[in-house]
Amino acid sequence: MAKKPIIQFNHVMKQFDDDAPVLDHVSFEIEKGKFYTLLGPSGCGKTTILRLIAGFTEATSGDILFEGKKINHVPANKRPINTVFQDYALFPHLNVYENVAFGLRIKKVKKADMDAKVKEALSFVNLKGYENREIAGMSGGQKQRVAIARAIVNEPAIILLDEPLSALDLKLRYQMQYELRELQRRLGITFIFVTHDQEEALAMSDEIFVLNKGKIQQSGTPNDIYDEPINRFVADFIGESNIIRATMIKDFLVEFAGKQFECVDQGMDPNEAVEIVIRPEDMEITSVEQGSILVTVQAQLFRGVHYEITCMDDAQNTWLVQSTKKVNIGEKIGLRFTPEDIHVMRLNESEEDFDRRLDAYGEDENNAK
Amino acid sequence: MEKKSSSLANLFLLFIFFILYAPIFYLIFYSFNSGGTMSHFEGFTFDWYRELLHDTRLLIIVLNTVVIALLSALIATITGVLGAIGIRSYKRRQTRNTLLSLNNILIVSPDVIMGASFLILFTMAGVRLGFYSVLLSHVAFSIPIVVLMVLPKLMEMSSSLEDAARDLGASHWNVLTKVTLPYIAPGIFAGFFMALTYSLDDFAVTFFVTGNGFSTLSVEIYSLARRGVSLNINALSTLMFVITVIFVVVYYYLASRSGTKGANLRR
Ligand SMILES: Nc1ncnc2c1ncn2[C@@H]1O[C@H](COP(=O)(O)OP(=O)(O)OP(=O)(O)O)[C@@H](O)[C@H]1O
Ligand SMILES: [Mg+2]
């Protein structure tokens, strides 16, 4: 915590013309050497944040700091930050070597040094021996690696990646996810990665910022965000989830689907209207007698690893369950979950309030253990 | 049925081309006539070409024409490229389209009107008619052509290329010389060659703005032809035709090399 953040946004606002602001008082800190992901639906302002960090555009208001110094008006070519563009933006009139060497040539690096550096960068991305290839003759995955090599060869403090994997097929994408993560660990450079694919974000990041409509909804480690989504949007966007209206009777007791359940959340008002989240994989199918709630099976899809089963309870709530067991449509089954599987969300709670509530009760939770 | 009509169409096409090219080949043919008239062919000779080579006045005019063409094409290309970059830099679509329309109007407006208006302008501004007036007017009518050839290439270039160059530390000047210009180079060459050919064979505009003692080939041929027939003109026209054909071939070679994809589609 004492470490100075490498990038800091202080109430950054960005507005084009007279439209509604694209970024609305966004504040966050980025620590050195970590893998960050900006996650959000299309048009939520992810690219805009990257462009602000890279220096291609200026904030309407608010401050952007690099290692504590304000860089709002520092031009892009003076920032120790390099970008891997969504469309790669490789120079079509230059070959692979010249593309990678572009930044070094601008800095007038000596020929021998340049050769060594380009070679090293290309071997980092497994493209040894591709120096003299033309860009037009490379596959999507290879182009992407050239784009990464072109960024890392300059040894920047931060690398920004704008959905670099979205154009690749599934298999190559998985492979590149591993390679990127591995590369980041080896280089120790701060990565800020943009995606709208939640699985990708969960798999790769040290820390995730979930964005929606120009606001940061929640930030935290993949586990935090998956297990304790702050609101309906985050719960829905990150993975499959059952979101059910509920009432918080008192601390550790919540009522939904016509029954009261023990839970681990606290700090709400008595009888406050809330929403609860239960992940489909956290529920277990049991007999009617053993189930926490009773449901009727409505539909079943085979997803390869598991069955995805849609059920409905007596209060007309729909439940999504993942199970390796097959059930029959129309059958009555029980769903079992533990108090830890229930996550309670307050309506319209801001991230600060959420953190404050967790901090306030974290103490006695620890004492209890 | 279909075959028949298409062969008919081919025949028609051939006929049209024959009519279009017949006068030129007729003229070329008699440029080798030793008889001195264009009515009947007596024998093969290079005399007219030899005479042409000894006519210093004519050679100077040829030189003038070439110098004007090269210089005006060069100046027009530089100005046109800058203009195209300028047009692209306007973010608003409407401004851009207005500028482009203003540019295109200059291309479609009749040469005679252009020539007359240049004449009026030069007279009012007190510019002496001669080399500079011709050069200026050629530059002026070539710029819109260059803009028209360069702008599509510029528009096709993704703005992220320039962002990427900036990102890698390039100054604005470096972005221009290392990324933008190389990318649009085919368009620049095409524009240059178009400007060159337009300048070489322009008659109408030049006719208005040449003064005494300065002339270009097309104007000179016109005045020679009015004075009476000499096969000199045929020889000269033949040379010009050959040079034009060479330019066209070079132009198509460059164009097809840069836009292989487009050419394939058309095929
Ligand atoms: N130059 C611009 N002028 C006007 N509006 C813009 C401009 N650039 C972006 N926007 C708007 O800003 C909003 C956010 O854009 P941004 O590109 O940051 O989205 P994104 O999160 O990267 O989306 P995607 O996942 O589709 O790439 C969009 O509504 C977009 O229309
Ligand atoms: Mg984007």
Automatic annotation (TrEMBL), chain A:
Listed under catalytic activity are: ATP + H2O + polyamine-[polyamine-binding protein]Side 1 = ADP + phosphate + polyamineSide 2 + [polyamine-binding protein]Side 1
Membrane-crossing residue ranges in chain numbering: none
Q: Domain ABC transporter spans what residues?
A: 7-238
Give one Pfam family, short name only.
ABC_tran
Q: Print the keywords alphabetically.
A: ATP-binding, Cell membrane, Membrane, Nucleotide-binding, Translocase, Transport
Keyword Nuclease on entry: no
Q: Which PROSITE patterns match?
A: ABC_TRANSPORTER_1, ABC_TRANSPORTER_2
Enumerate the InterPro entries for this protein. Answer: AAA+_ATPase, ABC_SmlMolc_Importer, ABC_transporter-like_ATP-bd, ABC_transporter-like_CS, Mo/tungstate-bd_C_term_dom, NA-bd_OB-fold, P-loop_NTPase, PotA-like
Family indicated by similarity:
Belongs to the ABC transporter superfamily. Spermidine/putrescine importer (TC 3.A.1.11.1) family.
* Name recorded for this polypeptide: Spermidine/putrescine import ATP-binding protein PotA
Q: Which organism is it from?
A: Oceanobacillus neutriphilus
In the UniProt record, the gene name given for this protein reads potA
Automatic annotation (TrEMBL), chain B:
Q: Pfam families under this entry?
A: BPD_transp_1
User: InterPro entries per the record?
Assistant: Bact_Polyamine_Transport, MetI-like, MetI-like_sf
Flavoprotein: present as a keyword of the record? no
Residue ranges of every copy of the ABC transmembrane type-1 domain listed in the record? 62-251
- Where is the major localization of this protein? membrane
Q: Does the keyword Mitochondrion apply?
A: no
How is this protein situated with respect to the membrane? Multi-pass membrane protein
Which PANTHER family does the entry mention? PUTRESCINE TRANSPORT SYSTEM PERMEASE PROTEIN POTI (PTHR43848)
Record's family?
Belongs to the binding-protein-dependent transport system permease family. CysTW subfamily.
The protein in question is named Spermidine/putrescine ABC transporter permease
